[in-house]
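Troubleshooting: if your tokenizer reports a length mismatch, compare against these two reference records.
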Amino acid sequence: MGRYVARRLLQMIPVFLGTTLLIFLMVYSLPGDPVAALFGDKAADPATVAKIKHDLGLDQPIWRQYWDYMSGIVMHFDFGSQIRNGRPVTDILGDAFPVTLRLSAMAFVFEIVAGIGLGIVAGLRAGRLADNVILIFTLLIISMPVFVLGYLFMQGFGVGAVSLDETWGELVGPAVVLGSLSLAYVTRLTRTSMVENLHADYMRTAIAKGLPKRRIVGVHLMRNSMIPVVTFLGTDLGALIGGAVVTESIFNIHGVGGTIYDSIVRREGTTLVGLVTILVIVYLVMALLVDLLYAVLDPRIRYA
């Protein structure tokens, strides 16, 4: 197991470098001058613009900018500073990430509890009325864009914009909206996996042994059916944090998603790259944890 973890950590290095390089190149290839945008409609003094670019290192070749950026991360855990006010990205992340973490955690719990619960009901009653109703419901959720669902939720339940305090109670509505799409996928994935495993040989053997139905379903069926679900949930946690851009914008939540949206609007390339880099790290860590969970769910899996 230790050798496998070490090998996976080494594999993450080129993935991290390649992903951050692509993000860096895409952000800094966007049209417009972020320094000139600081002055708005006013004409900027060329000497002042040149000095700001020099102080921020924006007058360097793109490869040198990327080298300085990665060196700051590796040596000092420094993700750069805002162009507008020079505030470190780590400070911005420190304010925004806890909010998004709470929102994503609530959405994650919602999709696990409701999604797996509905999937179990549909899987055990495949082809019946309950199964058909759940499949239609999940299809409706999948076909509905997040911004449409958010506005319908606000209008239907009277949920307004979140205050600056962003309490747990105020985040319930946005969390439901954020986790709804993933809930539909978890439900369908759980249902499909359970229907497939219900006809497996080990299930017939367990029934032939006369084991209690609770043990057959709760241990044998669920343990094997959860492997594809865990795969989806592991990668989806990172997707929830990154996908909160639209939800946080709708409900005026000042988290990572809202900060990314503001960075795009204000052309804050350094802030945008820093925040997305954090999301890349979250994705890589979650992918590793999912692989390690396979051995817990299925004893037949061994890592060399």
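Reference record two:
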Amino acid sequence: MAATADRAHAAAVPVDVCAVVLAAGEGTRLRPLTERLPKALCPVGNVPLLDRALDRLAGLGLVGPAGVAVNACYLGAQVVAHVGDRAHLSVEPGAPLGTAGGVANLRDWIAGRGVLVGNADAYLADPARPPGPDIAALLHDWDGDSVRLLGQPAADPRAPGTFDGHVFTGFSLLPWRLVRELPITFGDLVRAVWRPAEAAGALTVVPYPGTFYDTGTPADYLAANLHATGGGSLVAPTATVTGRCRAAVVGADAVVQGDVERAVVWPGATVGPGERLRDAIRAGATLTVPATPPVPGPARL
């Protein structure tokens, strides 16, 4: 994001708020893609999901190791190398600590501040350019004591996993008083923070007007990529395409000689002559992951 945008929105962020991007998960529903690459680094519209989250936070002035932390565990060396010095890194040993444990493990770094927590695998596309009316709205007039979630109206307001009739869309805002009590053990924010706050009348859902996919399944991952194309195809400048591409994303140094439609071709991947790739993701020379189109409607938690 441009520096001018950073300056324009930095004043909207209280000085006692930091951000955490959760990027430690195994992404089991995206296997075998995530056997090669952590989910946080999977590209959507040829941009790694983690970079999308960091750019969105930068639009609020939350940048650098003092303002933003990223946790890593599964294939953590790849996340660490990708982030570099752009954020504070929290590498969890062994298995991932979950969303609550990952935040708790950063308690000394958070050090009394409120925390804007984002899932690295959340694809958000609001009507305006980031930060737009979404995560900035989480911070507007925050009292520093309540819990806030970004959400969209659920198809079934009473369905499990909803909050005040909404589905969670990737970002939440937590007060220090709750963060400091989290144990550094495996746990999720739903049970550890959000539901107790809801029961205590201390949880607010901030409506999100844009498009959201959690990218957790191949179908939603494909849908997010197709949304990022704007209705056409998105081909990296260093890709070689001699075949046919329709509604597709083709990554850097990929080679497409066949027919590609409603598909994602990862960086460096190949689609040979005579091949037809449809509703699928291609990685490498042979790995093809089918991605059945999702049922229309808001993505679910």
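Descriptive notes for reference record two:
- The longest strand covers residues 166-174.
- Residues 218-290 form one domain.
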